[in-house]
Amino acid sequence: MNEKIVARVGRSDLGDSESEVARTYIARTLAAMRGLNLERATVYPRVSEHVPEVIELIETLIEGGYAYEANGSVYFDVTAFPEYGKLSNQRVEEIETQGDPEERGEKRHPADFALWKSGGVSPEAIAEHRHEGVESENSVENPAEAGTEGAPAGQVFESPWGEGRPGWHIECSAMSMTHLGETIDIHVGGRDLVFPHHENEIAQSEAASGTEFVRYWLHADLFETAEEKMSSSLGNFITVGEAIGEYGTNVLRTFLTAGAYNSTQTYSEEAISESEERFARLSRAYDRAIGAVDGPDARTKAGDPALREATEGARTDFTAALNDDFDTREGQAALLALAGAINRHLDGNDKYDYRGLRRAIETLETFGEDVLGLAFGTSAAVEGNVSIAEPLIETILDARERAREAGEYDRADALREELREVGVEIEDTTEGTEYRY
RNA sequence: GCCAAGGUGGCAGAGUCCGGUCUAACGCAGCGGCCUGCAGAGCCGCCCAUCGCCGGUUCAAAUCCGGCCCUUGGCUCCA
Q1: From the CA of A228, how many Å to the C1' of B21?
Q2: Most buried among A106, A132, A170, A430, by the most CB within 10 A?
Q3: DSSP codes joined into one string, A272-312
């Protein structure tokens, strides 16, 4: 429920009403989240469905002396909440101004912020957002963008203060308290939201409830490219959907968990290809272990202390890493170390430690797949096209093998190169030629 | 100007809270060896770091203190 949404109503790709536009963006976001292999939340609340709770919360704040009404709008009185600024370490006196310039006159203190805004969205605000580069990258040819005539002012709601709309921050407090109670354990968000949004959430929630709102704040840092920061205004950004399309979920997740969530990460082709290698190394080791455990050389009575120690070490290290403020990169390092141990075991023994390998595989699955959300193994990557592709590849490999036996290496290498060009990597081993794609 | 987070090898990125085990992790790139017809993968080994600058504390500092420089986010809109 904001100006930007209202400003986009009528665009053919988004929808004909405020609610529809919001729905479109929600759908896009959820699609991106699915693409990232994220678990679904239990509930995805919408402000428009929580207006009664918002009004109730505002009334509580007014009754408690934390908010006041002015010309049909309601503002939070920051001077009534002495702890205001505690999250971002700001002092009320230092905070210059907030909110619409024309609203400033209604405020008792410049840092007061709106809980309820009188009336609908003004045409000027809509026009402003339409011109301020809102989706400018793809709206050029859209005739609906041309004028603001007939543009809706957005939905308004009845309230004790007249028709109006919820303020910018109150919805989060109201919905959080409705669904999760007065105090929540963890609140996440981007670093750019610390002030004013999270600060205001604390003020609203704690002033109303009289108790702690959030026990732990986890603020995710932003990305920057090697040359400059990544931002929509510079146009040098990539969406989650595009990144998934280009690199795949596994590589992207490896990249995203290859650094601390709360430190700035550099996004570059080089960083991505490093993640490709990191993931590939894990996935190959997983494949080898699966192949070995299913093969004839795996023995229940064989035991490799080095492999077993490495596996238990990886489990301990991974758990310790994640317990340390979600240190996913250190977790990856633990798994990478296990991959090395698997390779050493497979390279150095004729008979494989069946139970040791099973435990190693289980470790990769538990921590790599279940926790980090990666999907190892070639089978997971190919799915559908197996039926036709595999017999074809094998036919070509047979031809290449005959060429090799005949000493016609040029021909063999040409076949290998052609397969590579269509995405099939092959590998000669003592067991025969293997391939992956 | 104010608030906050950072500045570590060719790249990327831990470590800084609780000084010594940091002659600085894992990885990528690079180099050598093993293996291979060759390659790839894998294994073994190696090169590259005065830890932003200056000063201080200490037997000892990437880690603590002070000053400075630079980058990023916020302080106007929006969440």
Answers
A1: 38
A2: A170
A3: HHHHHHHHHHHHHHHHHHHHHHHSTTEESS---HHHHHHHH
Strand B: positions under 7 A of a protein C-beta atom: 1-6, 11-15, 25-29, 36-44, 71-79
Amino acid sitting at position A277: E
Per-residue HEC secondary structure of A14-54 comes to CCCCHHHHHHHHHHHHHHHHHHCCCCCCCCCCCHHHCHHHH
From the Cβ of A322, is strand B under 7 Å away?
Answer: no
pLDDT at A311: 92
Residues in chain A: 437
Q: From the CB of residue A13, how many other CB atoms can be counted at a distance below 10 Å?
A: 12
CB A160 within 8 A of CB A54: no
> Which of A119-133, A171-185, A305-319, A354-368 is predicted least confidently?
A119-133
From CA A126, how far away is CA A135, in angstroms rounded?
13
Domains of chain A by start residue, with CATH: 3-220 (3.40.50.620), 240-376 (1.10.730.10), 385-436 (no CATH)
Residue A385's pLDDT band (cuts 50, 70, 90): very low
In whole angstroms, B57 C1' to A263 CA is 30
The C1' atom of B68 and the CA atom of A226 lie apart, in whole Å, by 26
pLDDT digits (tens, 9 = 90+) for A46-80: 888 999 999 999 999 999 999 999 989 999 999 99
All residues at 6 or more sequence positions from A203 whose CB lies less than 8 Å from its CB, including other chains = A66, A76, A78, A81, A83, A84
Residue A233 Cβ < 7 Å to strand B: no
- Confirm if A202 and A213 have CB atoms less than 8 A apart: yes
Distance A135 CA to B72 C1' (A): 24
Q: Could you tell me the two tokens for A141?
A: 């040819």
For range A83-103, the mean pLDDT: 70
